[in-house]
Amino acid sequence: MSILGIDMGGTFTDLVLFDEEKESLTAIKVPSTPGDEAKAVFESLDESGVNLTQIQRMVHGTTIGTNAILQRIGAKVSLITTKGFRDTLEIGRTRRMVPGSLFNIKFVRPQPLIPRSLRFEVRERTLYNGEILYPVSEADLKEVSKKIRDLGVEAVAICFLHSYTNQENEKRAGELLEQILPEIPISLSCEVVPEYREYERFSTTALNCFILPMMGRYLETLKKGLEKKGYLREILMMSSNGGVITSDSARKFPIKTILSGPVGGVKAGIFFAEAVGLKNIITYDMGGTSTDVCLIRDLEPSLSTETVLSGLPIKCPQVAVKTVGTGGGSIVWVDFDKTLKVGPRSAGAFPGPACYGFGGTEPTVTDANLILNRINPQRPLGGKISLHPHLAQKAISKLITKFQMRDEYQMAEGIIQMAAVKMVSAIREISLERGHDPRAYMLVAFGGAGPMHAIPIASGLGMRKCLVPRYPGHLSALGLLAAEIKYDFVKTIISPLDGLGWHGIRSQYDLMKARAKSELKAQGFQSGDIYFISSMDMRYLGQAFEMNIPILPETAGLKILEEDFHRLYEETYGHVHKARALEVVNLRLSAVIKIKKPPLRHYQSPVQSVREAEDKRRRVYFDGEFWECPVYHRELLPQGSSLNGPCMLEESGATTVVFPSWKASVDEWGNILMEQLDSVRVRSSITPQSSKKSGLK
């Protein structure tokens, strides 16, 4: 039997197949197909030649929901809410939430996801303590339902005040609306986000509805296509929380899959780090559209319960992945103040970078790398896309005179440096700005473009080492195979810690565990396979926002809990107030079901010497001049090989660039460890001028 992981990105779709009998791994990369996303999945399956009747488990990660939100191409959604709260979605937090907008004097606030004409009020009221002051008005609901039908609404979000304390009114409204409008999917805020803060709860539920019909259609198409090919088992979906959920859960709560692709890479980074004995790493995943970074301490990723996407808050448990709009396909453009910008707009899979030859004319990061000869122009990208250096040169040349550059090589290198600055800034945000020194971590670089830019990123952070795992271009798909099944539960309490007491906390968790076991059993999971992870959202009494504190097995009382809070608070903010009272806001519980993961075997090269792994040499541009660089087939490099830069390590799905004054070595697992040398090598005598004469073919 085999297990299968398929990760769909904005530019490429990756498939990884692990054959348990042969203990072999097959990796496939195909261009993504925007607008017909399932097509790329089926193409990858056809290319792999896999027999789907022999697949024991399939895990899928996708960016469909993310792209729909970013591009505002989701469903027509209506909101039904408590009388007097129609404009909650538009009022928000009365502050700018779009990144980079705070000091933009020309900023125009994005329109709310649901226009006012599609937001309706009904009479009902639940108090903060769960008491039902007024039951939901059935007459109001019937009147609203007629308007919703006439307006051609595709999904409905029901968001009542304080429904997290008592779900009765929302549940009743959902039942009535389902009877009247059975063809329209409905999301209840008490199910999507069963915790307090109405704006975040309303926004997340609205976003869930916005992508719900699209995700439903996609999963239905995927299911039918897979059934025709012989796969009749459950399709598991990667969730933003670092685990996987069933396709039925993903249909109902597609908002939980927003970070499914990036989180797959994080899981793979942890998988490889654990095998090689690393505990503290920073994952750096650069793809065609964006770059995702995550800080992992003691093999545990940073977690968050809220993020902002396109200026809209999403409140649900998630791995704290920081995304920046810089990828291989990021477009290089000139702003109104005549400054050069890289991203966040992307050329995507189509038309793609100019060098693809699909009609793209704007310069991209990929075009810049091709001009510098860091990408092999003779090697089709992803095994399928032929590259055209003259088209890249044509696109880049448009910028030379605008910025008074010497030639296209200097211009291209400047673009790469600008892209690196943006990515370094993203890593500083998740490390230095949160009290973590990146030099105490190992940078783990992957994605189609990550290994190419790993050294500039590490240098920008003062890191002298970085690691490129095996299969870097397919690592997010591989991470799907290492993810466990995981469901999250939350209960809002809002009580002084002393008033709740340790016994009260344990009693609440016992009730939550019983509920988790019941719900997972209904989905076909056995309670004996489940283990639990507990944590609490806490704050100083009087504060508006809280911190998540893990409850470890050794946590045996309020005193230890208080000490953990003070320690984490001081690490994060640099100060602490031990005399102030603490308040509990939410109790959180994760129910995790272990799965069998593919074993990581020791690496064995098919050849004995480095010379047998060497391909043709190539002139590559670094620091203002060309260097004569050996090019190696990475999959042929023997264990223990040590290579001084500059050199290029090429493989299916990615190219690792070893810069001058760095060296690369191959460890027992087949990973590439790159380290900065103390002295700089003697440079090549080849100059940009002489290289120009020979031309880039």
Characterise this structure.
With 697 residues, this protein is an alpha+beta fold. Among the domains are: 2-68 and 228-252, Nucleotidyltransferase, domain 5 (2-Layer Sandwich); 69-215, Dna Topoisomerase Vi A Subunit, Chain: A, domain 2 (3-Layer(aba) Sandwich); 485-593, no CATH class; 610-694, no CATH class. It has 18 helices and 36 strands. The strands form ten sheets. Strands 13, 14, 15, 20, 23, 24, 32, 35 and 36 form a nine-stranded mixed β-sheet that branches. It has a six-stranded mixed β-sheet with strand order 3-2-1-4-11-12, with helices on both faces. A hairpin with a 5-residue loop joins strand 35 and strand 36. Helix 9 packs across helix 14. The chain is globular and about 80 Å long. Mean pLDDT is 90; it is low at 680-697.
Which runs of at least 5 residues are low in confidence (pLDDT < 50)? 680-697
Number of strands: 36
Counting helices, strands and paired strands, the structural category is alpha+beta
Name of the top-level CATH class of the domain at 69-215: Alpha Beta
Q: Say what the CATH topology of the domain at 69-215 is.
A: Dna Topoisomerase Vi A Subunit, Chain: A, domain 2
| Portion of residues within helices | 25-40%
**How large is the share of residues in beta strands?**
25-35%
Count of helix runs = 18
Distance separating the two termini = 46 Å
CATH architecture of the domain at 69-215: 3-Layer(aba) Sandwich
**What average pLDDT do the residues reach?**
90
The rough form would be described as: globular
Largest sheet: 9 strands, mixed
Q: What is Rg?
A: 26 Å
